[in-house]
Automatic annotation (TrEMBL):
Residues 351-460 form the Pyridine nucleotide-disulphide oxidoreductase dimerisation domain. One of its GO terms (molecular function) is flavin adenine dinucleotide binding. GO terms for biological process: 2-oxoglutarate metabolic process. Binds 1 FAD per subunit. One of its GO terms (cellular component) is mitochondrion. The active site is at H449 (proton acceptor). This is Dihydrolipoyl dehydrogenase. The active site is a redox-active disulfide bond. Pfam families: Pyr_redox_2, Pyr_redox_dim. Belongs to the class-I pyridine nucleotide-disulfide oxidoreductase family. Its EC number is 1.8.1.4. It comes from Solanum commersonii.
Amino acid sequence: ASGSDENDVVVIGGGPGGYVAAIKAAQLGLKTTCIEKRGTLGGTCLNVGCIPSKALLHSSHMYHEAQHSFASHGVKFSSVEVDLPAMMAQKDKAVAGLTRGIEGLFKKNKVNYVKGYGKFLSPSEVSVDTVEGGNTIVKGKNIIIATGSDVKSLPGLTIDEKRIVSSTGALALTEIPKKLVVIGAGYIGLEMGSVWGRLGSEVTVVEFASDIVPTMDGEVRKQFQRSLEKQKMKFMLKTKVVSVDTVGDSVKLTLEPAAGGEQTTLEADVVLVSAGRVPFTSGLGLDKIGVETDKAGRILVNERFASNVPGVYAIGDVIPGPMLAHKAEEDGVACVEFIAGKEGHVDYDLVPGVCYTHPEVASVGKTEEQVKALGVDYRVGKFPFLANSRAKAIDDAEGIVKVIAEKGTDKILGVHIMSSNAGELIHEAVLALNYGASSEDIARTCHAHPTMSEALKEAAMATYDKPIHM
Ligand code: FAD
């Protein structure tokens, strides 16, 4: 392979961090090779993360709507049923199309692609055990580690991907479980719980902390939890999982209050373990070249994504920061820009977060709790979708927009949206925060009517004045 010639940049890992870095590097005129062990590009995100989960969230939402909402819009069926194999096939088709699309982008941009498991021989040489069974050495002046993350297991529990599953197994169940227990009330657990709940599973979410998604604005989180409870998702908060045992065809969980106390048991057909993700650097040979990691195993880098070993960089889920695909992509571009002698920048305070349930919850900037803790004087403007004409017209009016702005300057500090498509609506706010806008800037921007986006305009208005439609 031409991978044995010296590259300017070698990227280990073809996820959203790695493949984006590789394409950007090639676009900047650097000779680039990307090494990926999976056999397909796109990493966790495309293969077993963002994309398949969004496919199933959409399909299950359509089924749920057909069952519960179509009739009130005057669309009637004699019966609606789930064809799980067809649903899974549509998901697989989306994944296959997108992963192949990245291979196409590699060809177009002349990124050399080596399929295999990479490990460091030296800070400028990577030995690759190829998926075909051979071995090749890839040399590079700069090497970027983009090996991502893996599921975090829990002590005393074995993930078999059948009864006790990670998100990967939960994306490929062959039957709808009657009872699904989700361990961990983070984004992934709530999304996968929503998918199977809509398809008919009884879903119980067990969470050690006192709240679901702790990073979310408290007020929005409370409404979000109520909404999920209305959808029949049950929550057992402040609860510790003591053990999980497979008994015949079912799984028995032993639980106890987080603060200690009497144990209880819970039965399930399937248990989803979604208690977080850990950086993945297994077999990479970091010790051999002396790359420093923190206690959690994350690679320590400076603001230029450089590790302590000259010429070795790291990006994405394998370094500290939010474990999100778009953050990994931003890291990838900035890292390569530095390597190419340009300036790169990622503002980690302005990385949006989205939970793709229904309604979705999206946010950017600070929560009210964070602003309070900073001792900043602030104002809050809120607007409910119940007062938004588009949301009412389509009978999808659950949710709220909350804008937090600094009192003296009116500068926007944080925006939180719970609604259908909040993940799309949030980007107006993301742009506003990136440009240091005031809430009045949004309020005085003409928004098309009737759109859900008008709710953001009105919430912005409500921070310093009165909204019109409330
Ligand atoms: P990864 O995507 O993990 O890619 C790393 C790649 O490196 C892998 O393909 C791996 O095979 C390869 N690799 C590892 N070691 C080696 C080696 N030694 N040699 C060769 N190759 C190697 N994020 C969002 O932003 N939005 C979402 O909606 C979202 N949904 C998610 C849903 C689920 C169920 C999961 C699990 C995750 C989700 N995420 C989401 C998180 C997102 O997938 C990750 O943040 C993102 O994939 C991180 O990108 P990365 O490039 O750092 O690593």
